[in-house]
């Protein structure tokens, strides 16, 4: 086993998985061509690749692929900003204020147990089938994990650091920004990552169930119109996007952790 | 005074020419270099040395948890090839109590693994809980106890199997000073009462001076025995007394020389 | 208690909001009407067959996923190459919106009921296996050394006294969240494919029977809150039995 961070060791970890994925795809492709798996269940590999390749220029795709993709990204972005805007301050308020915590925590615990998706049909009635309902669902699905993990992360706040900083300054906001936040940065990034992932989930579910546009819609549309290659192509795009988001956070996380060695 | 020979009593532990190296990342670390010792029955034998000198490694080898690259350890006449439950007990720096078991069930773990029946186990465990001063805590869970109390449970657990030898690897290292002092006194009392052979690793010179009959001073890595010091102070000892302080100073001098080497 | 006051004021606020006629009452009914509907649904057992359907997909998926998750988590903790091989995929699927797999699963399995069970079990499998793996891995080499000094050299003893309890309590500690995720999965499955509670909710919204719609939502909410409450105790006890680090001395 080649250890260490060299490019060679990275390859050694990635190659087996590339082989596995390629193997599975090729086997599926073979089974489709031979007729053991119907073409409605899985496309041949070249059909799938062609669907991916021509996704952008495919005239069959309602609104065109790019509109769908950008709509999803845009929806997620707005929903996530609301999630952060509401979630972070609430989490801080909950942790720092014992009164607020005692009152609201049990309520929040109960409320977060409710599956947000059950509210979706009502949301569609109130917000319409447009982007607003997906934003709403994204927020409802992404907010609970963000608050739960952020409040959990804040419990790791090292009061020692804060008292130390208090010796040097009276400014609460300075202590906050320069000491408190950095000290829990790694855990905070995990909370943000979780929040974003779930916001993305909420938006996609909303698009799959009731929407005229978006990547979730495309998967659903590809499915109901028997355009199997397009359905899988859309799925692949969603998967890759989700992974890209995750990898970015992991990379961020590693860079931050490097500088937090003292912890 | 220094002595590399045994005192009265027969030698129950013989460490002969132990050397140990291991590889980590891409380099080889020489942890121990030709260490030899003899420990007599009933002694409180302490090993001190700078951080990283290999004293924990040495203790692990004596316990049979690590196979040394060279040399042998002979305990109670038999060569050590692996852990010797019932003969050698080990107390770690981390109490390592099973968090899902109550205190009494933790103390009884060693007995349980030797096949002792439930009623007898409970009886013996309660006895040892009393010995470490934790009667009344038997139905609590480890997470409800303080660090010092957890370590007492660990000690009770190690003693409950009635071993000939008790190996202790910086058992009080993670505790605050007050707890260390209290546990140190308790350990001394327990040792005098049970007459076990104890091999104790610590980086605290005060502990070494207070607790031990003899102290082996190790050099920095690769660890060698620089000297073995007899502690002649009468018991029960007062950690503040001039005698103990004098020993501490002597140990410190020897230690410094060892680091310098 | 203050919380009751907050909940009460939520309903009062709702009532006021409806009275303000920002939305037509057909879209957002009054709380009184909704609560009436809740009573009606519960007493007449109106959608019982759908509730039973969803409950069965939910329960089957949860059991299937969590038990296999427990076993696989233990396997991954034990065999390094299984972990190296499978863990990346588990983590990957965990990061992806799993609802996009629903059409694919249905295509391959053919049956809607089976598809839902499979889809739901993904949630509990991922969560439980990751938790069990993590729980077992916090038992560092130290614990293994410790039990060895007491004579647990044979694998079966190490297993029974150390590995299994750790895995089991990690499993229990993850059960509540796995249940909540599985519930979400059950509803999402129903929203896309009939029958089930999700389907009912969807159909009610299409036919604008909003008071019934909100009634069903409330019932589901209450069920979820109750399940959560019950499982909190189990999770709390299991978590306590896994706490390795002591609180201050």
Structural account:
The complex is a heterotrimer of chains A (263), B (261) and C (249). Chain A is mainly alpha-helical and 263 residues long. Chain A has two domains: 1-39; 43-262, MetI-like (MetI-like fold), CATH 1.10.3720. In chain A, 78% of the residues lie in helices and 0% in strands. Chain A has helices spanning 7-34, 45-53, 65-96, 98-111, 120-127, 131-154, 159-168, 172-183, 185-209, 215-224, 228-259. The longest helix of chain A has 32 residues, at 65-96. Chain B has 261 residues and is an alpha/beta fold. Helices cover 35% and strands 26% of the residues of chain B. Chain B contains eight helices and ten strands. Chain B has helices spanning 55-63, 103-107, 109-113, 118-131, 147-160, 177-194, 205-211, 242-260, and strands at 11-24, 27-40, 44-48, 70-75, 78-79, 88-91, 165-169, 197-202, 214-218, 225-230. In chain B, strand 1 and strand 2 (27-40) form a beta hairpin. The radius of gyration of chain B is 18 Å and the shape is globular. The two termini of chain B are 21 Å apart. Chain C has ten helices and no strands. Classes of the chains: A mainly alpha (263), B alpha/beta (261), C mainly alpha (249). At the A-C interface, helix 1, helix 4, helix 5, helix 9 and helix 10 of A face helix 1, helix 4, helix 5, helix 8 and helix 9 of C.
């Amino acid at each position: 086993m080649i250890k260490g961070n060299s490019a060679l060791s990275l390859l050694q970890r990635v190659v087996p998985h590339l082989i596995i994925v390629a193997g599975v795809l090729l086997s599926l492709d073979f089974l489709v061509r031979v007729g053991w798996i119907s073409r409605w269940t899985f496309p041949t590999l070249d059909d799938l690749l062609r669907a991916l390749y021509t996704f952008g220029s495919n005239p069959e795709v309602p609104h065109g692929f790019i509109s769908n993709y950008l709509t999803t990204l845009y929806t997620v972005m707005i929903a996530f900003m609301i999630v952060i805007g509401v979630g972070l301050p609430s989490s801080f308020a909950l942790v720092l204020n014992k009164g607020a915590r005692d009152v609201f925590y049990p309520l929040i615990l109960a409320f977060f147990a409710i599956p947000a998706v059950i509210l979706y049909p009502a949301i569609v009635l109130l917000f319409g089938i447009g982007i607003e309902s997906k934003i709403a669902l994204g927020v409802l699905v992404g907010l609970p994990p963000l608050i739960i993990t952020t409040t959990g992360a804040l419990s790791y706040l090292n009061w020692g650091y804060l008292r130390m900083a208090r010796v040097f300054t009276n400014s609460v906001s300075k202590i906050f920004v320069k000491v408190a936040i950095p000290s829990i940065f790694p855990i905070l990034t995990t909370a943000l990552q979780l929040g974003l992932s779930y916001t993305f989930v909420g938006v996609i579910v909303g698009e799959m169930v009731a929407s005229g546009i978006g990547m979730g819609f495309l998967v659903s549309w590809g499915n109901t119109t028997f355009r199997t290659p397009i359905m899988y192509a859309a799925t692949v795009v969603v998967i890759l996007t989700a992974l890209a988001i995750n990898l970015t956070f992991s990379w961020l996380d590693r860079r931050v952790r490097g500088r937090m060695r003292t912890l | 005074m220094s002595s590399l020979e045994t005192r009265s009593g027969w030698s129950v532990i013989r460490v002969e020419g132990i050397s140990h190296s291991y590889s980590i990342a891409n380099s080889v670390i020489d942890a121990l270099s030709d260490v030899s010792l003899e420990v007599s029955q009933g002694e409180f034998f302490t090993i001190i040395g700078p951080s990283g000198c290999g004293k924990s490694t040495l203790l692990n080898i004596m316990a049979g948890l690590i196979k040394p690259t060279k040399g042998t350890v002979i305990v109670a006449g038999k060569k050590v090839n692996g852990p010797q439950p019932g003969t050698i007990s080990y107390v770690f720096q981390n109490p390592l109590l099973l968090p899902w078991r109550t205190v009494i069930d933790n103390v009884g773990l060693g007995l349980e693994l030797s096949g002792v029946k439930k009623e007898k186990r409970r009886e013996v465990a309660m006895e040892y809980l009393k010995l470490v001063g934790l009667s009344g805590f038997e139905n609590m869970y480890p997470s409800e106890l303080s660090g010092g109390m957890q370590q007492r449970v660990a000690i009770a657990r190690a003693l409950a199997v009635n071993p000939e030898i008790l190996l202790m690897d910086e058992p009080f290292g993670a505790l605050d000073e007050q707890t260390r002092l209290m546990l140190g006194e308790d350990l001394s009392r327990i040792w005098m009462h049970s007459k076990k052979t104890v091999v104790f690793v610590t980086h605290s010179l005060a502990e070494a001076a207070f607790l031990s009959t003899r102290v082996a001073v190790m050099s920095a890595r690769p660890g060698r025995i620089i000297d073995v010091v007899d502690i002649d102070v009468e018991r029960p000892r007062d950690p503040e007394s001039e005698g103990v302080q004098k020993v501490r100073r002597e140990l410190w001098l020897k230690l410094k020389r060892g680091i310098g080497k | 208690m203050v919380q009751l006051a907050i909940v009460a004021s939520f309903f009062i606020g709702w009532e006021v909001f409806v009275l303000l006629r920002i939305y037509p009452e057909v879209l957002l009914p009054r709380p009184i009407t909704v609560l009436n509907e809740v009573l009606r649904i519960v007493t007449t057992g109106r959608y019982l067959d759908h509730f039973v359907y969803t409950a069965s997909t939910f329960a089957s998926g949860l059991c299937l996923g969590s038990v296999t998750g427990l076993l696989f988590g233990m396997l991954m903790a034990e065999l390094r190459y299984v972990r190296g091989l499978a863990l990346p995929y588990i983590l990957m699927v965990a990061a992806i919106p799993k609802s996009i797999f629903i059409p694919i699963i249905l295509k391959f399995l053919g049956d809607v009921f089976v598809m839902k069970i499979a889809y739901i079990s993904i949630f509990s499998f991922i969560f439980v296996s990751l938790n069990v793996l993590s729980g077992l891995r916090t038992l560092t080499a130290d614990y293994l050394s410790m039990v060895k000094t007491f004579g647990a050299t044979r694998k079966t003893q190490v297993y029974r006294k150390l590995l299994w309890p750790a895995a089991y309590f990690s499993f229990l500690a993850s059960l509540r969240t796995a249940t909540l995720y599985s519930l979400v999965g059950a509803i999402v499955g129903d929203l896309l494919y009939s029958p089930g509670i999700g389907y009912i909710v969807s159909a009610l919204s299409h036919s604008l029977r909003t008071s019934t719609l909100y009634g069903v939502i409330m019932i589901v909410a209450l069920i979820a809150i109750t399940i959560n409450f019950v499982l909190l105790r189990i999770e709390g006890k299991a978590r306590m039995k896994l706490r390795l680090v002591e609180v201050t001395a």
